[in-house]
Each structure stands twice: as structure tokens, then as C-alpha cells.
Amino acid sequence: MTVPHVLGPANVPRVSRIEDVLTDLDFAAFCLWIHSNDPDIEGILTVMGKALAQDSDREARDDLAGLIEDGLGSEHARKMQRNVMETLFTPRRGTIVGDARLAGREEGRREGREEGRVKEKAERLLHLMERRGLSLTEETRQRVTTCADAPLLDLWFDRAIDATTLDEVFAAPSTTERVPAPARSPEHTADRGQGLTDPRPSAT
């Protein structure tokens, strides 16, 4: 007769010690999933992450880190997992965690470069309008420096070359003036406890 054996937080050990995790990383990941709704899931993830950071098999480690994230039941827990992994080690490209982190870094650099270009355009526009003798109020300066639309700043700059008033610079684009759409970015700690003991019945 087959007797069902239900596994849950009540009979599956909680990940709490690095040395226990290192004895069986795969089983520790299983235990982590079972306790993914634990109030101290961040502590559990930290213990697991510290153990993974000690694993010399980087490929297996990064793959398991990605699987752990996939197996977590909530986006909140998955975000914690990514934060823990980012703090403890740099995953390699080609894994879920690694690709997400590397993509985030590249996206951050791309956004930083774009912000720098926009800021430079705004400064050039203000300088040109001052050289042209246009009266710049604080409101006008704020309008320029807070504008994040690079094509619109380009349009204002082109107008400022010949404009005699601020109204000419900031007038709404006419039907003959095309403002290109902005370029889009490419798609882009725990309590000590007992050791991990497998609660599953052994085959006889």
C-alpha cells in the first residue's frame, strides 16, 4: 500500500547554517523553496548565498542560484535573492542571475550616458541664449534643465540661433518642424538551527 508523505515547513529543515548547506547544496535549495514564505526569508537566502559563494564550481553555483530564484514563490523573495547574490558574488553571463545583473549594469551605464548627453544639450542651449542676449528667468532655466527630451532640446537650440524672443524658442513645433522620437534602449541573516536532515522516507 502506498502511503502519501506530505512535505512542508513543519517537517522540512530550515536553512540556517552555512556548513549544513555545503554538505548538500541541492537539498538545501529544496529546503529553501519549502520555506520561501518564512518571515525571515532574507536571512535564509543570505545563508544560502554565503554557502554558494564558497562553492569552487562556479558554473554549478551560478546555475543553482538561477534555479533558486525561479523556485521562489513571490517577486518579493526573488528580488531579495537577486540582491543577496549581487552583494556576495558576481554571477557569470549565461545564467538567470548573471544575465539579469550584467544587463542591469549595462542599462545603468546606457541611462547614465543618455542623461549626460541631455544635460550637456541643456547647458549648451542656456549658454547660446545668454550669448544671444535673450532674457533668461529662473523659470526658463528650470524649463531647460528639467527637460529630458533630447530631440526637443535640439529643436530649441536650432531656434535659439536666430530667435529674438523666448516665445520663438519655446513655441509649439509647427507642422514643418519634425521632432524625432527619443531613441529607445534595446530590450532588454538567520538563527542557528539543526543540521539539514532529509525528511523524505528512504526507499526500502
Walk me through this protein's architecture.
- By secondary structure, the chain is mostly helical.
- Among the domains are: 18-92, no CATH class; 111-170.
- It contains nine helices and no strands.
- The longest helix has 36 residues, at 96-131.
- The chain is rod-shaped, with a radius of gyration of 28 Å.
- The chain starts with 17 loop residues before the first helix and ends in a 34-residue tail after the last helix.
User: What amount of the residues lies in strands?
Assistant: under 5%
How many strands appear in the DSSP assignment?
0
Count, helices: 9
Question: Uncertain segments of ≥5 residues (pLDDT<50)?
Answer: 180-192
* Broad structural category: mainly alpha
* Shape designation: rod-shaped
Tell me about the biggest sheet? none
Task: Give the topology string: H per helix, E per strand.
Answer: HHHHHHHHH
Assembly type: single chain
Helix content: 55-70%
Please, what is the average pLDDT?
78
Quick recap of the structure?
It contains nine helices and no strands.
Write the layout of secondary structure elements.
Elements: H1 18-23, H2 25-34, H3 41-53, H4 58-71, H5 75-88, H6 96-131, H7 138-145, H8 150-160, H9 166-170
